[in-house]
Design a protein that fits this description.
This protein is about 65% helix and about 0% strand. It has helices spanning about 5-25, 35-55, 60-70, 80-90. The termini are far apart.
């Protein structure tokens, strides 16, 4: 036979007070965090992927500039064609 149920709730109140007192004693100066090199590399890769996905593939300003140059008959000279050919060959590794 249970004579008193109120004593259990009083015991819970005392335990809750002790938990609160103990949590107030936490010293934040001892807390630290360390991040692995792999995690840093993954964060950088995520950031670069995000920037790349937000960057447009086509630069309209450069396209307009090149179109304007190509319309000028004096622009296409042997020197310009040779320079473009050399840059193309270098970019494909030849």
């Amino acid at each position: 036979m249970i004579n008193s149920v109120n004593n259990v709730s009083q015991l819970n109140n005392v335990q809750n007070i002790r938990k609160t007192e103990n949590s107030a004693k936490v010293n934040s100066e001892t807390d630290s965090i360390s991040v692995s090199k792999e995690a840093v590399q993954m964060a950088e890769a995520y950031y670069l992927d995000k920037v790349a996905s937000e960057t447009p593939d086509v630069r309209a300003d450069r396209i307009a500039e090149v179109k304007a140059k190509l319309k000028d008959p004096n622009y296409l000279s042997d020197a310009v064609i040779q320079s473009a050919a050399e840059k193309f060959m270098t970019s494909i590794g030849l």
